[in-house]
Batch of 2 targets.
Target 1
Amino acid sequence: MLQTRSFVSYLRVSTDRQGKSGLGLEGQREAIARFCAAEGLTVAAEYVEVQSAKGTDAIERRPKLAASLAHAKRLGCAVVVAKLDRLSRDVAFISSLMSRGVPFLVCDLGPHADPFMLHIYAALAEQERRMISTRTKIALAAAKARGVKLGGDRGYRPVGFAGREAGPKASAEARTAVANQHAYNVVLSIREIRAEMGADISLQTIADELTRRGIATPRGSMWTATAVRRVLLRVEAEG
């Protein structure tokens, strides 16, 4: 049981560019603010980290996370994150955080997600990460088989305008291949959802269910009706 209605919020982005631009931070902060208003909580402190979550020893490279845990422990409150993957997609790492005796609240899972549920969602997120990695490798291999040169031109400059455009074009084709493969896999999940919940459900309902199932968007954010529509349009356009 929490001793206070305050909490410590933790926000994380993976790159310096995202950190400097605020890309991703505003969305996390807004999600936490909505959660705070709905649950009658107040923010005692906010910690922002620019660091990848890869690796089970990530706590050693994430001083802001360590500081947020220490602050919350002093206050006898929870650490709140917008999404579970802001902590990690690694089950072992999530378990190590739980063992520190500081409760976690995850906005998109609701206020009643207990440690057991968090472990389940972490396991699903870890599996999704592995599947995304596998799908990406398959998509890149398929692009390479079609003659797409991956990894940019690495300093090579063919003569003529067409040559100058070859590197960016190849890179764009590779990114498109990966995006298409991700869209195809998401559409399979959308079809399952419609089969279970009805073919006439709204795009927002589909978005909420994709998020609930721990299926990530290409940017790792929460699904919206617009994002679902884009996936469907992409797959339709590709035939």
Target 2
Amino acid sequence: MLVRMTTDAPTPRRATGRAPAGAAVLREDVTEAIRTAVFEELAAVGFARMSIEGIARRAGVGKTAVYRRWRSKLHLVLDLVSAVAVQGLPVPDTGTLQGDVRMLFSMVARILRHPVASQIIPDLQAEAARSPEIAEALQKALRDSQQSVAIGVVRKAVERGELSAALDENLALDLLSGPLYWRAVVSRADLPKGYLDRLAAATAAALRAAA
């Protein structure tokens, strides 16, 4: 994160063609500093108390640098949450259904237990009840980002003959994402040693039984 005050630099003149007068280059280092600051500010004070002033101060930039990119804190958060959905997770490929499920759980658990994520997700869920825009973006980030991974796990298992091609992929997504999310985010319970192994074995068995 940047600690010095800075503003976006004007577009330099080129030998062939010029940018319109007054145009500014949106420097990527400034953009990344703002994005980092938003996540940290959300974790520290929550969406309701978060302000453009606080984000700018934490990022070490002027408020105008934030407003050049996003017109409000709502649009800023929506953009970042949507970006998380686009990034997604890699599809595990261990050679077995249970191995793939276990690796997926390990990746998801690491994300959900991160101190920043553990503060931001519940707060945005509360805001989603009041804002359809946040609700839609959050659903996309939490569900759609895992959907391609879950489908990938299921289809690899089908190719290996471990699951039937008739398995409902929406049901598979619920089985793969629901239990761990409930424990880590909703009930905020610990994950004792061996828990993910047992959960992976139970989930793999449930997927086979559901096919």
